Amino acid sequence: MTHCAGYRAEAAAHRSDLRTLGIDAEPHAPLPDGVLEFIALPEESSHVARLARHSPEVHWDRLLFCAKEAVCKAWFPATHT
Question: Which residues bind Mg(2+) (predicted)?
Answer without folding.
Answer: 24-26
